[in-house]
Amino acid sequence: MRAVLHCVRLRLRLCELRVLQDDIEAELRCTASAGISQNIMLARMATRMAKPNGQYYLKPGDVLGFLANEAVRNLPGVGWSIGGRLKEMGVITCAQLRELSKASLQAEFGDKTGATLHDFCRGIDTRPLKENEIRKSISVEITWGVRFADMPQVEQFLRNLTEEVVKRLTSEDRKGRKVSLKVKVRKPGAKSSMKHLGHGPCDDKNKTHLFHAFTDSVDDIAAACIAMFQSMGVPALEVRGVGISIHQLTLPGQEPGPDARGTSKPLTSFYTSRSATHGEASTAAMSAITSGPRGLANAMDAPTIPAVSLEAWQIPVGAQVRITCDRYWEIVKKVMGGCRCSLMSHVRGL
Questions:
Q1: Helices 218-232 + 151-171 axis angle, to 10
Q2: Does residue 158 contact residue 200 with C-beta atoms inside 8 Å?
Q3: By the 8 A CB rule, do 1 and 341 touch?
Q4: Domains and CATH numbers, the chain
């Protein structure tokens, strides 16, 4: 779970930010880390230095040095595909990426992606922080620990995932008219994922169903998702991730006319019993999430980077503060109800 605070007219001291972190821990029973810098991208990078349960301020004068030895794969938006192509070009770090001109990056990756890579490796991010936008879709996606033995397990998973997305839909007093199903399918010949029970190299398959009227019916949405999955012809053994999105939403509190067109579950509840082989993988996945004080991060043996000590200096006006919850499992159970945490909220009331 991430919470981003844009300090435009506020001047916060770190001790005041600590109060916010303590409030998150008290309500969600998980610690939170805060990264602070001059834009969204740098605040996100700084958060990695703040873990666990700390704060890190990346000063403007330290940006180029901080990014120099950072792997390009750590930049937002650089995944398997772009990272692999950069590696083939001999680019591993941000310092190496800076040696390439903007024109050459745009020729290789396109105008938008090339310009973004050119800017990000220099700590430049001009994206504004958007607040109070009306949601255009509500979704849930799980891409870790997904392993099935047969079709009945897939159908039960889709049913349970539908119940979760409908719960989020009704919690915001919305209905939707379109449902999209996204399935991650293991690439042919792909090796085991670098991350234990991760999805690894995959191909994404997507299908969309349009209802005759706005709905928040679990039965209708689940039936549509199961039918879409069956039409994809994907073997259950090859599935590595599933996502359901509801689009074309009514406005909050709006009740569409008759002729109109147009508390979360924990991860374990999405799984049914498996065969011995797949049951062992599922048990390992659940154990990895729930074990240790840092949950999933512990299971992946993530290095602990010392955070800066708490000081009484002020966060500059215009700085971006990114807060990330450290204990994955607790936030999954309390807020997300799924394996992929992607909730973005804006902090207020300070």
A1: 140
A2: no
A3: yes
A4: 76-120 (1.10.150.20), 141-250 (3.30.1490.100)
Handedness of CA 78, 79, 81, 85 (dihedral sign): positive
Hey, what are 183's tokens?
């399935």
Strands 2-6 and 344-346, how do they pair? parallel
pLDDT digits (tens, 9 = 90+) for 42-92: 999 999 888 888 889 999 999 999 999 999 999 999 988 899 999 999 999
Alpha helices in the chain (DSSP H): 14-28, 40-50, 63-68, 80-88, 94-98, 102-109, 111-120, 151-171, 218-232, 276-290, 296-299, 328-331
Contact assessment for residue 58 and residue 19, using Cβ atoms and an 8 Å cutoff: no
Alpha-carbon gap, residue 268 to 260, rounded angstroms: 37
The predicted-structure confidence for 240-264, as pLDDT tens digits, reads as follows 999 999 999 998 767 666 555 543 4
